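From the pipeline queue, job 12 of 40. The input is one protein chain; the requested action is below.

Action: predict structure.
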Amino acid sequence: MTLIKSISGIRGTIGGRAGDTLNPLDIVKFTSAYATFIRRSAKSNSNKIVVGRDARISGEMVKNVVCGTLIGMGYDVVNIGLATTPTTELAVRWAGADGGIIITASHNPRQWNALKLLNNEGEFLTAADGAQVLDIAAKEDFEYADVDHLGHYCEDASFDRKHIESVLALKLVDVEAIRKAHFKVVVDSINSVGGVILPGLLEELGVEYKFLNGEPTGDFAHNPEPIEKNLGGIMDELKKGGYDMGIVVDPDVDRLAFICEDGKMFGEEYTLVSVADYVLTHTPGNTVSNLSSTRALRDVTEKHGGNYCASAVGEVNVTTKMKEVHAVIGGEGNGGVIYPESHYGRDALVGIGLFLSSLAQKGMKVSELRSTFPDYQIAKNRIDLTPETDVDAILVKVKEKFAKVAEAQVNDIDGVKIDFPDKWVHLRKSNTEPIIRVYSEAATMEAADELGKELMQIVYDMQ
């Protein structure tokens, strides 16, 4: 059973039995429930829902089911085709729609797909709103339109260009400086929609580029999560020389990772850190990231005189905290940059524009820029779940164990995070996969991994 219903939407593998996976029957049920929720709660009355999708092999099938269901619910569908998650978020606002559905499983492998659900601001539903959708679905509390009130369907391919233009128009995206720098980059867009939109952005910025895995076939050339162990191809390309940097996105282009000119990872955790440092230099203020993100953002924020806050994991949790503390920049350590001057959503295009602006203005190599930030190392481990695993009981026992340790500060707003003076470890159930994520940070990778493995062994001993 792979069907996961969480703050990150409805996600599962394609195929299998109803109720166990993401299949046509369940797609209809959850789309119907979402449309019912929007009908009951919509603040606008456009009667439009925007639908966009990444290039996954199953995307065409899921799109057809979603669009047909929305029409059957009486909604007019604006299908924007192959589009990034941030493009779809922006399209909801620009189209004046009541909501939007993004068909993407983000970093998950090719057999997965998902429905990410948006409100009329183009932002993810809150946990409370998502719970209402799930309740409507469980009760099948929805009613379809009669023949005279069916919705209509249209396609609109204009939003990629609007998205690019919106990035170029941001005050802190220094288009002139980037053009003068004559950057030469390699891009891995993992056979999805990054290969559709990023060429246009890079051309506008005067950046010479080479794409790896640029065809949006959905048949991913490697595991699509943009982390070091999956990026050997682009790292080897950079080691040949002749490039200023590498750019890597995930299938729906809301996560962003950079690779230094020598083929070494810049570090996905440092995507947000570097962009935040640039933004804070020009617009001092507060920042937010989630509990599983590096302490380096806190250090950089305090250097600029701002306050750093941590939220629970999940984009909507980050954006909620950002609004609460009036953060000027925020995001997640997985390479997700959220810049409110654009919109409250992780956006790799915005991240690229801001990062290249910083690099161009400073006249540094990417490796030199990386050396200017506090140096922490994060180990990212996982514990695979079985149907018998009692995650809540495990987390309670871990919390109780470390509550007795004098130097440990325990935070349980999202799983259990244990902060020590010089390191931390965070255990939490994933919103997107049937696993417990175990993230740990210390001064060296060896120390970080050792801390993570210690906690994993405690968990194994409890089972």
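Job complete. The mean pLDDT is 94.
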